[in-house]
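Re-run requested by the PI after the first attempt was lost when the workstation crashed. Everything re-entered from the original request form. Ligand of interest: zinc ion.
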Amino acid sequence: MYLVKTPILLSKMTSRSLVWNIKTSEKKIFLTFDDGPTEELTENILSILKDYKAKATFFCVGENAKNYPLLMQKIQLAGHTIGNHSYNHLNGWKSTTNDYKENIEKASKHIASILFRPPYGRINYSQIKQLKTEYKIIMWSLLSGDFDVKISPQQCYDNVLQSRAGDIVVFHDNIKAQEKVLEVLPRYLKYFSELGFEFCRLDL
Ligand SMILES: [Zn+2]
């Protein structure tokens, strides 16, 4: 069970420690790709982004960053930002604060970034308190649902059509999301580019 759009109340209550969206009156959307890099998908995503002059932020898993340093370089050379997504996709709700922090530090050896996104969005208060001095903790305002095997590519497209200026939108650089990303991402970028939107990386 997940919500495509983050409830306004939740984002307001936690907005001092967590970034849920970017306040802007400009037509800007902040794309993010979680879980990569992957041999299967990263280069395809980069090529689609290039077609629409779109920039994005890739929240990478440390283990993948370690295994695919060339892909990490390609992401950054193409002008995108990288962020930390833990070393091996750790669930904060099932980890002690110490283990969680150590895991993120381990990932940081392969991902030089002050941006961090908690895997599954699951992070507790004590972990936030520990991390927020060193990291900007980035959540989201819109989920594509590309990871959800129960929805069709069309439903995933309908989800992202709800994008608004300043939204932080989540896709996945993950084999489980491959089919939907390859089908939906180009349609999505085309639609919003034609409406005058710019796709931006997070520069915080
Ligand atoms: Zn993830």
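Saved to the shared folder this time. The longest helix spans residues 178-194.
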